[in-house]
Design goal:
Blueprint: H1 2-25, H2 63-78, H3 83-92, H4 97-106, H5 111-123, H6 130-139, H7 144-153, H8 158-170, H9 177-186, H10 191-200
């Protein structure tokens, strides 16, 4: 009797194991799935390539070219540059002329907008006439067209700029009325702007 019960118990265990194996097999074996999928590590989740995308500086350039491009963009995040001014700065940092040109060509800067930003930065620290500001931008190696754009669109009140310049002169030296008018005209202010500036300082 005990032997029969043992055989029945053993049979039940084997039946249970068989059923479990069939059940697990219903999910499919490893061979039932395609494991040949290879992730494309050059593609971002947004569908564009990390490499070969000029917006990110990976446009097939050499290591030194991409380093120059990275440096150019870091400069432009901090201050405004002309095209030639940026090349000069990169060369000063030790980049070759060809790498500097590569970076300036690909940095994505709008040079007219750079001229405008440079004009505004000048006006935050000093007074300029329209003519004087344009000349200063050209000195910074902006083209004549870019400098003109910067001076035309900087939002300066040229009468107030003349008054500010007149006050700066009066702080360092003594002037007669006519002499100060002459000096302001020399700085590129029109006669009417110069007169406004002199009147503003009480001469």
């Amino acid at each position: 009797m005990k032997k029969l019960l043992a055989m029945l118990l053993l049979g039940g265990i084997m039946l249970c194991m068989t059923a479990c194996a069939v059940r697990l097999g219903g999910f499919g074996s490893r061979d039932d799935y395609d494991y040949d999928y290879e992730y494309d590590y050059t593609t971002t989740p947004y569908g564009y390539s990390n490499y070969g995308n000029s917006d990110y500086g990976y446009s097939g350039g050499t290591t030194s070219q991409n380093q120059a491009l990275q440096k150019a963009r870091s400069y432009l995040n901090a201050m405004a540059f002309s095209y030639e001014g940026l090349i000069d700065q990169l060369e000063y940092e030790g980049f070759s002329h060809s790498d500097a040109v590569y970076a300036a060509d690909r940095c994505g800067a709008n040079w007219k907008d750079q001229a405008l930003q440079k004009a505004k930065s000048y006006l935050r620290s000093s007074a300029f006439s329209h003519k004087g500001l344009k000349e200063q931008l050209e000195y910074e190696k902006f083209t004549s067209e870019q400098a003109q754009y910067g001076a035309d669109n900087c939002g300066a009140n040229w009468n107030e700029q003349a008054a500010k310049k007149a006050r700066s002169y009066m702080n360092v030296s003594s002037f007669t009325r006519q002499r100060l008018i002459d000096q302001l005209e020399y700085e590129g202010f029109t006669y009417s702007q110069a007169v406004y500036g002199v009147n503003a300082v009480g001469l």
